[in-house]
Specification:
Elements lengths: L19 H7 L7 H21 L3 H17 L6 H8 L2 H13 L41 E7 L13 E5 L20 E5 L5 E7 L4 E2 L5 H8 L5 E2 L2 E7 L6 E7 L16 H7 E2 L4 E2 L5
Helix pairs in contact: 1-2, 4-6
Pfam families: Dioxygenase_C, Dioxygenase_N
Protein name: Catechol 1,2-dioxygenase
Keywords: Dioxygenase, Iron, Metal-binding, Oxidoreductase
């Protein structure tokens, strides 16, 4: 049976019961899987270390609990406040980086991934190549009509991939995704496209704009407390899948966008990364290969 032993924190040890954390860890039963045991042991250890190191008070603990409860109340099938909280603390970007690097061989550098974000929706309409994902702009701003085009290739061989499905979505010129905005029709600015033998794709959209993540809920309270802005640089989301290949979740950024070096959810850590995965600032953009 795997051991539950974990080191007792040194910080504040002289003040607090040095055996308490290990007692909680030891309560894990023998039927717990090794991965569950590993994750919960580490979680308990870090949570207890955090409480000791900061000498967490009852009032502060209750404030944190209420924040999590409030995030649940704000969440529904159109908004995931828990994910927004993870985003503003950089957790989703960190997990994405870990997943990406674990999935890639040391010498391999396929198209870099980026966070999914809380506004993806399943079952976007399947469209024909060259169609527009713009259904209606009334009441949301006209925006700049933009042609997105590129080719999906095998990054090792450079050969085009037939049958790759690109699931794309972005905000309207008013900075809102369609599920946030009653003025937009269902699935506006969303679509799926399937490549042919040449691996090429093209579709029309609106040039994306910077926008604020929702800041009227718990995530906004945290940003305000930290004296941080809620804005993301202009980008378009992609999920690319193809038979026999690992899926890619990524974003294409406009390198000329405001906030490109100061993304509220840390999807773009540096401008150097933005250069690798951004639009060229023109109205026609090619994606990197997978």
């Amino acid at each position: 049976m795997a051991s539950n032993e974990a080191s007792v924190p040194n910080s504040k040890e002289h003040k607090f019961n040095p055996h308490f954390t290990q007692a909680v860890i030891n309560a894990t039963g023998p039927k717990a899987t090794p991965r569950v045991r590993q994750l919960t042991t580490s979680l308990i250890q870090h949570l207890h270390d955090y409480a000791r190191e900061n000498e967490l008070t009852i009032d502060e603990w209750m404030t944190g609990l209420e924040l999590m409860n409030e995030a649940g109340r704000w969440s529904d099938n159109k908004r995931n406040e828990g994910q927004l909280l993870c985003d503003i603390f950089g957790l989703e970007s960190l997990v994405d980086e870990i997943t990406y690097k674990l999935a890639s061989d040391a010498a391999d550098e396929p198209t870099a991934t980026a966070i999914l974000g809380p506004f993806w929706r399943a079952d976007a309409p399947q469209l024909s190549m060259g169609d527009s994902i713009v259904q209606n702009t009334e009441g949301i701003g006209e925006g700049d009509r933009t042609k997105m085009h590129g080719i999906v290739t095998d990054y090792r061989t450079g050969q085009p991939i037939e049958g790759a499905v690109l699931d794309v979505w972005h905000t309207a010129p008013n900075g809102l995704y369609e599920q946030q905005d009653p003025n937009q029709p269902e699935m506006n600015l969303r679509g799926r496209f399937t490549t042919g033998k040449d691996g090429k794709y093209e579709f029309y959209c609106l040039r994306p704009v910077p926008y604020p993540i929702p800041f009227d809920g718990p995530a906004g309270k945290i940003l305000q407390a930290l004296d941080r802005h809620p804005y993301r640089p202009a980008h378009i989301h992609f999920i690319i899948t193809a038979p026999g290949y690992k899926p890619i979740v990524t974003q294409i950024f406009d390198r000329n966008s405001k906030y490109i070096e100061d993304d509220a959810v840390f999807a773009m850590a540096t401008f150097d990364d933005a250069k690798k995965h951004s639009a060229a600032g023109a109205t026609e953009v090619s994606t990197a290969a997978i």
